[in-house]
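Tokenise the fold.
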Amino acid sequence: MCDPITLMTIGVSIAGSMVQYQGQQDSYDAQMARVKANADNANAATRTNMNNINTRAQQEGLAANQKKFESGLDTRAAVATAVTAAGEGNVSGMSVNAVLGDFYGKQGRFDAAVDTNQDFSRSYLAGEMDAASAQGQNQINSMPLPEAPNPAAMLVDIFGSAVSGYASRPTT
């Protein structure tokens, strides 16, 4: 039969192992909460970046359409002036058609340049979105996941304490 001192030693060892395990579990839970908060923050920042990039893309598209619209107005005004002047001067034929063709050609080249620049901008902004996504993922990946406490280790500690307590008991 075990004496009371041995039983108390074993009981204290068991309690100590359990308290240590609970401390490790609490630490693990706190670290996991930080990991989750980091992931939530990274996702929120990524969404904000994506929204800003989308807004910029929309604004650039609207600006390009506005440029093309104004160019079209300028072309129509120039064509109307040329047609009116030709009519007042009794001029017609290929020379008038050539002047009108120049106006329309200039507008077409301008519109094509605006479209090309808009395509370049879209490609650049798509790359910015990819970069924002990668940056958010990198922020999430930068926090290592904590290691969960092992209940088997606690049981081994308890068993080891019990054996040690029993082995060091006074013998009569």
